[in-house]
Automatic annotation (TrEMBL):
Name assigned to this protein: Uridine kinase
Keywords: Kinase, Transferase
A GO molecular-function annotation: kinase activity
Domain of life (superkingdom): Bacteria
InterPro entries given in the database record: P-loop_NTPase, PRK/URK, Thr/Ala-tRNA-synth_IIc_edit
Transferase listed as a keyword: yes
Domain called Phosphoribulokinase/uridine kinase: residue spans: 226-421
Lineage: Bacteria, Pseudomonadati, Bacteroidota, Bacteroidia, Bacteroidales
Family annotation (Pfam families): PRK (PF00485)
PANTHER family: URIDINE KINASE (PTHR10285)
Length: 486
């Protein structure tokens, strides 16, 4: 599907460059089961503009124009892109450190794409381009049913988060990897780290203030629900949020969903007959809700502790009673699922969605998938703390993603607030840690192709040491050196 999308983006760029020679196209990020694009033509985009673009794209597809890959010395590619005014690609290639590179042609249009393209435009049988807020949404075929387009899912809150961080990137002038690399070469790395960390802390403080002040309106939040996909930094976020809540005079208390698993023999099975611990129904929902309700009524409850060796809950005298200043913090993949807390009044819940929404791009037409960011985090964490090789983590990743699609992403827009845990400098820091781990993947293994792709991708970033990263950083959850206990 990535090859299909890249090839389609080239068709979009060719159509736009022909119809609006002075325009500027930015393929920014995936959203609403498609790809959000920003088209700057000096005025507001109209429905007529979109119709013209779509018509020209269909003509290009019908012409079945071949994609040609031109391999050359990097200096030659830089010269070609400079002549065409594509400075984003010039900066990327000049700072990549590669002696040789390539670019693509489609008729008389040139561009650079990270990865392979289809043989010709005639393969692009299914797509759509629609006006979407102040930009365009490039619609693509469904992964589950390639003969149909993905259904557009409204993700207004996620789009707002992307826009907020893109605005910050525009202010700093760091819109893509080439800009970032040049800033590092100029000695601004420490400033970038400090500003990015301060921006996240400011956002966490604002969320804590919102939770606290909502109580002034008679809708006191007693339960903070934090959800997000794998390696989004939920745990460190919950700890930093707890600190900010304490500055407001509240007493946060963490509740672990891991202690509410049903006994192992009652765990639902997946399609392969294995225990499905990611299923919502692997949790004792009845017990969990009864205890939550009792706590919110001011009653004392004895909390269970799940014995993973025996596969059942145990009670060891861990009792809890909360007062009016206590706020319960619940972090887990199902936290935003309405079925988890159906008996808790909505006014008593504050819901937060955390994910690493990468806002920096390789260049104007090559976005960085948020899944790649999270996978790199997970490879490092699994290697450092769980004893898993990169090969094992990559092998498990499709199953993890499948669980996210089923149990997490459908509920992300239920959040009161979304928090972006991605840091503009992090991929440069992750490079230092993940390269030797990825290089350990055997060449004859099924996971080698993915490991090679990730290695090639991460080399676009100039490496940055982690010594400047504070011990409270979200990145420390994966790299080590955190001042928090996990």
């Amino acid at each position: 599907m990535r090859t299909y999308v890249r090839s389609l983006c080239f068709v979009l760029y060719k159509a736009v460059s022909e119809l609006f020679p002075d325009g500027k196209l930015y393929v920014e990020h995936p959203v609403s089961k498609g790809y959000f694009c920003n088209l700057r033509i000096g005025r507001t985009i109209t429905l007529e503009d979109v119709a013209r673009i779509k018509k020209r794209m269909k003509e290009i597809v019908a012409e079945d124009i071949p994609y040609h890959r031109i391999e050359c010395h990097t200096t030659e590619a830089v010269r070609v892109f400079s002549e065409h005014g594509m400075e984003d690609k010039v900066r990327l290639l000049e700072t990549s450190g590669s002696l040789y590179t390539y670019y693509y042609t489609l008729g008389d249009t040139i561009d650079y794409y990270y990865g392979n393209l289809l043989p010709s435009t005639g393969y692009l049988k299914l797509f759509d381009i629609v006006k979407y807020y102040d930009g365009l949404l490039l619609r693509i075929p469904s992964r589950g049913n390639p003969s149909e387009l993905e259904e557009v899912v409204k993700q207004e809150k996620m789009l707002d988060v992307f826009k907020e961080y893109l605005n910050w990137s525009n202010i700093t002038g760091l819109n893509n990897v080439g800009d970032f690399n040049l800033a590092c070469e100029a000695g601004h790395t420490t400033d970038l780290i400090n500003v990015a960390e301060a921006l996240q802390e400011k956002k966490i403080a604002q969320i804590a203030d919102t939770i606290f002040h909502r109580g002034n309106n008679g809708n006191r939040a007693r339960l903070v629900l934090i959800a997000g996909p794998s390696s989004s930094g939920k745990t460190t976020f919950s700890k930093r949020l707890s600190i900010q809540l304490m500055t407001n005079g509240l007493k946060p208390y963490p509740i672990s969903l891991d202690n509410y698993f049903v006994d192992r023999e009652e765990t639902p099975l997946d399609e392969n007959g294995n225990y499905d611990y990611e299923s919502l129904y692997a949790l004792d929902l009845d017990l969990f809700n009864r205890q939550l309700q009792a706590l919110l009524r001011g009653e004392e409850v004895e909390l269970p502790r799940f014995n993973f060796t025996l596969g059942k809950k145990e009670y060891t005298g861990d009792k809890l009673k909360i007062d009016d200043h206590t706020i319960l913090i619940l972090e887990g993949i199902h936290a935003l699922n309405p079925e988890l807390t159906p008996h808790i009044p909505a006014a008593n819940k504050f819901k937060i969605y955390v994910s690493a929404l990468t806002t920096i791009s390789l260049d104007d037409h090559n976005w960085i998938p948020t899944t790649d960011n999270r996978l790199l985090r997970r490879i490092i964490r699994d290697f450092n703390y769980r004893g898993y090789s990169a090969q094992e983590t990559i092998s498990r990743w499709p199953s993890v993603r499948s669980g996210e699609d089923k149990w997490i992403f459908p509920y992300q827009e239920n959040a009161d607030v979304m928090f972006n845990s991605a840091l503009i400098f992090e991929l440069a820091v992750l490079r230092m840690h993940v390269e030797p781990i990825l290089m350990g993947v055997p060449r004859n293994s099924p996971e080698y192709c993915e490991a090679y792709r990730l290695l090639k991708f991460i080399k676009y970033f100039l490496p940055v040491q982690d010594k400047e990263i504070p011990p409270t950083s979200l990145l420390r959850e994966f790299l080590g050196g955190s001042s928090f206990k996990y």
